[in-house]
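User: structure tokens for this one?
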Amino acid sequence: MNKIAFKEEFLADLSQNNRGVGVPVGECWNEWHSFSAALLAVAVCATILVSHGWQTTSLVMGGIVIVVVGLMLLRIRWSLDTLSRHSEGLSESAAIAEEHYIDVLLRIVQSVEARDKYSIGHSERVGMLAKNMGEFMGLSNHEVRQLEVAGKLHDIGMVAIPEHIIVGRAKMGTEGFRTVKTHSRIGFDVLEPLQSISAALDAARYHHERMNGTGYPEGLRDENIPLSARIVGAADAYDAMTHDRPHRLALSSFAAVQELRRCSPAGYDPDCVNALAECLNFPVLEEAVAVTA
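Assistant:
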């Protein structure tokens, strides 16, 4: 499954949903020219009559001109309203097509995760963590919604990674890791047709970037890493640490947050890590640990 296949599916959905929502631009343009020609003809006739002394007739013709202009303005207003309605219908159809496309991608993510028992539910959890972090950081409702989808789709590029590499990650060599690293670029290509959730594009491509520039795919640093990618990156790392992997057992929530803080600001954005800690009630966990220590 590649970028071209996904784009073709998306465009097919868009075409299906937009059927019958054509905008009569050519029709409006032709009617405008018809009115303009009629107005010009009346104006020329009135001018000729005035030049021959037919004042009364020219006044009648002038009245006709006013009526024609009024009718033309009303027609233009109607045409603009029609265009506006069709434009709204087109936007709504595009939004429906994108929602369908997103739903298909979410199902693909679930099927990819099903290949590896250690990954089942990972993307769903990352999406919820990213959503909660965005809310805590004061992002708008629209941005929070984008973050949630971004988190759930951040690993969509894993669909192109061979199963033997995913299942055998505990023994992964240099070549296998190089292959896995391509999932961020592939994920970006898969999500590129989506216009309504631009944050998902950044999160898919850059969630493995690190604040000191040691991440991939482009080695971005600090604020050059999009905020959505920094949020999803922290959530992704936390969820990975708190669940079993082939080469290690899961860390506790407390230990995972401590590790993220230890790796900040070199690896993770401290603001994102703090937001994650607050969403997890980490201060309460710290107090509990202090009491039992």
